[in-house]
Amino acid sequence: MEVCRTGFSVENVRQLFKSIYPLLSLLSKLIITSKFRVYCQLVRLPNIFTSISDIVAGCILATHAFIDLHKMLLLASVSGCLYGGGVVFNDIFDCSTDITERPGRPLPSGTVGKREAIYLGIILFLTALLCSLLVNTTSLCISIVIILLVMSYNVWTKTVPVIGTFNMGLCRFFNLMLGLSIIPASISTYWMFPLILMIYVMLITALSKQEVKGEQRWKIGIIITCFIGLVLFIGSLSVKGLLPNHAMHGLLFIFTMIVLWPMSRTFINPCPKNIQSTIKTMVLSIIILDACFVMGSTDGIHVLVVLALLVPAYIISRFLYVT
Which positions ≥6 away from 303 have C-beta within 8 Å? Predict the structure, then answer.
């Protein structure tokens, strides 16, 4: 299927922002209502913007700065529904544990019934499959793989050391692949970026394992060391020509500092509160990491579209938890 490509310029960015502003305004008003707020909490609404940033970045990379907006919006919907459905089922399977550890969450508090949550999760997954089918068969296949990975994590691998962390990383690996699937042939060219994202999410998952009880300092030290190594590897990609725009290094430095600051604070005092704050920063910073991929691979203007997702993600995360 041939992709209809349209030039992407500053004017396109302005028009895109103008078109989504009413939606963001409506969203902010709806969040005020208690029931809708509960659903937003259940699906981790702030995190969904980080999932969508993978799609936007993947589409920009795949189309070489030309975007089929219709297909990109479909893929963004797929990703959002997959993420939302995944965390809904995560809370369903964790309900008995959350009664003790996180009693204020929607399911253990009783504000959302378990049957109601199951229906919501199924609807989100089915919507994702339908939207992916409207893009192409590659997108549909990747969506199915993500659902299988998400459910395997929720049902089994979550409690298995290493395997569960790897499983969660794979979910993000295929999510960025989903963005690239707008042009399936691009996957073989840009597979390195989903791999980097996978490793980064594995570090977040490893840290999140002890967010309730607190973490041992030496484990945090290992995570910090791995993170620094990953950043150095990303920087080296410009030497190999995979990220030819060297302006990316400035954004990469900002990304590193934003993540390292809470990490170092957690290393000094590995209490649950600091760990949860670090996880929140690392999750939202996925958007900046995606922006680094885009800036390194394009002339830079397209990075604004990715970074713009930080605004709603950060604002909403001040009212809704992300872990």
Answer: 251, 291, 294, 295
Largest CA distance in the chain: 54
* Domains of the chain: residue spans and CATH: 33-317 (1.10.357.140)
- Residue 294's nearest CA partner among 286, 73, 83 is 286
Q: How many CB atoms sit inside 10 A of residue 4's CB? A: 11
Note the pTM of the prediction, 2 decimals.
Answer: 0.86
- Token code pair at residue 63: 């189309």
Q: What digits encode the pLDDT tens for the residues 72-97? A: 999 999 999 999 999 999 999 988 78
Q: What is the pLDDT of residues 221-273, one digit of tens each?
A: 999 999 999 999 999 987 777 788 888 999 999 999 999 999 999 999 888 88
Report which of residues 137 and 100 the model is more confident about. Answer: 137
Annotate 85-121 with b (16+ C-beta within 10 A) or e (fewer).
bbbbbbbbebbeebeeebeebbbbeebbeeeebeebb
Contact residues for 309 (Cβ-Cβ < 8 A; gap 6+): 49, 50, 52, 53, 56, 287
Chain-centroid distance of CA 291 in Å reads 12
Q: Give the whole-angstrom CA distance, residue 16 versus residue 6.
A: 13
Can you read off the two tokens belonging to residue 139? 């997108």
